[in-house]
Amino acid sequence: MAIVTLCPQCQTGFSVQPEHLSAADGWVKCGKCEHLFQVDQHLFEMDDPQPVQEFLQPLSKPLQADVKHETGQHQDSTMVQMLMALLVFGLLMQFVLHQRHVIAARVPELQSALQWFCKPMNCQVSIPMDTDLFSMESSTFKRLDENTFVFEGTVRNLSEGALMPPALELTLNGEGDVRVRKVISADQLGLRVPLRPLGNHAFSLRFTLDPSLSPTIDGFRALLFYP
Ligand SMILES: [Zn+2]
Questions:
Q1: DSSP letter (8 states) at residue 178
Q2: What CA–CA distance (Å, rounded) separates 83 from 209?
């Protein structure tokens, strides 16, 4: 029968000598994984000590105080890490709050998330409206029948961010002084919010005119604008 100890970390067995128990209050270093442990808390009796290794090193002094100190340091550094993470998170939230319009314009997919983020703070997420950032790529005006017309075309968002779709002012010219002015919202044009970056967006509008006016209409002028 022999007294042995098992390293609580790597489970290697060691035979225990009297000096292991007396030196450093029983604190020893595992000869395999270098784990430090108190040998008297991990004692076993074995009939056949053959597989047991000899290399168990008593420490020069008890480790209790050092271990506590290390644990304290570990807790301190965890606290610092948590504070740093909170600080970074706070700064990130502040950045998002200030840049929400730009982020919403650049990444339209994030708009609803930004609106959700803004809600408790009573802030708004708006999409930029800038008439210099889009152009009318094409437009056609056709008479379908006596009083029905269709106006269709394409708006191009020239910028790298999303834009609010514009409204349209359509002026129809006829013989003499006949002039019909129509203001058509983006929604009526079928332009969806937002106008995606660097893309063409088709619109189409069908409308009828008063029979007293329609026979004379022979030209148009279209202007995109924000109401
Ligand atoms: Zn070990």
A1: -
A2: 68
Angle at 28 between CA 26 and CA 31, to 5 degrees: 150
pLDDT at position 176 over 60: yes
What is the CA(42)–ligand 1 centre distance, in A?
12
- For the stretch 19-69, pLDDT in tens is 888 877 888 888 888 888 888 888 877 776 555 566 777 777 666 544 555
13 alpha carbon to ligand 1 midpoint, in Å?
9
Distance 29 CA to ligand 1 centre (A): 8
Instruction: Give residue limits of the domains in the chain.
Output: 2-62, 76-121, 131-225
Residue at token pair 């005119």: 209
Report CA(115)–ligand 1 centroid distance (Å): 55
How many angstroms does the Cα of residue 28 sit away from the middle of ligand 1?
Answer: 10
- CATH fold of 131-225 reads Immunoglobulin-like (2.60.40)
| Ligand 1 centroid distance, CA of 44 (Å) | 16
Secondary structure class of 111 (helix, strand, coil): helix
* pLDDT score recorded for residue 215: 78
Give the pLDDT mean for 104-131.
Answer: 80
